[in-house]
Specification:
mainly alpha
């Protein structure tokens, strides 16, 4: 078995993946909120939970794909 000290992804790729993960977590946080079992809460149909949160999460996932495929310029 040959040892290769080089990783498949460069350091910038790992930073970009971490940033994409953070964007995705922010999107999930925007979709979350308080839930009440006792009474109906019309806030579950808010613009933030229905539209903004899923779009932010989707763009976070797309950014992670971009981060994996990104090839840094050689020196």
């Amino acid at each position: 078995m040959e040892k290769n000290p080089r990783f498949t992804l460069a350091k910038i790729n790992l930073y970009l993946i971490a940033a994409g993960f953070l964007i995705t977590v922010i999107g999930f946080f925007l979709m979350s909120g308080s839930t009440t079992v006792v009474e109906f809460n019309p806030d579950i149909f808010s613009h933030r939970r229905i539209t903004v949160g899923p779009m932010v999460s989707f763009f976070g996932f797309l950014f992670i794909i971009f981060a994996i495929l990104f090839k840094p310029k050689s020196k």
